[in-house]
Design brief:
There is one protein chain. The chain has about 120 residues and is mainly beta. It is about 0% helix and about 55% strand. It contains no helices and 11 strands. The strands form 2 sheets. Strands 2, 4, 5, 6, 9, 10 and 11 form a 7-stranded mixed β-sheet that branches. β9 and β10 form a beta hairpin.
Length: about 120
């Protein structure tokens, strides 16, 4: 599974960005699509996730500001980020989570840089 991300950039605090993630296979064949944030010197942290059944979860730090959604017709998952803060700065990775015979298999995109200036 290959994942192509887009939509990062530079924005002022309080602004908005929308990230996109397009997998090389149908979204219906993927258990979940997750967005992770990585900042320098820190491990990747889960920001938001959406399952093939439409179940959605957010990290507390982004609740009420970020919205994850999927467009099955376009085979795309979006992360709408509003009211951005400088601490949202980092590289955002799209992750596809699959399970096979009890094992989790992860696929990662190349990452997209988001920079929020104060």
């Amino acid at each position: 599974v290959q994942l192509v991300e887009s939509g990062g950039g530079l924005v002022q605090a309080g602004g908005s960005l929308r990230l996109s993630c397009v997998p090389s296979v149908s979204l219906f064949s993927i258990e979940a699509i997750n967005w992770y944030l990585q900042t320098p010197g820190a491990p990747r942290e889960l920001v938001a996730s959406i399952t093939s059944g439409g179940r959605i979860n957010y990290d507390d730090s982004v609740k009420d500001r970020f919205t994850i959604s999927r467009d099955d017709a376009k085979n795309t998952v979006y992360l709408q980020m509003n009211s951005l803060k400088p601490e949202d700065t980092g590289v955002y990775y799209c992750n596809a989570e699959e399970w096979t015979t009890g094992w989790r298999v992860d696929y990662w995109g190349q990452g997209t840089q988001v920079t929020v200036s104060s």
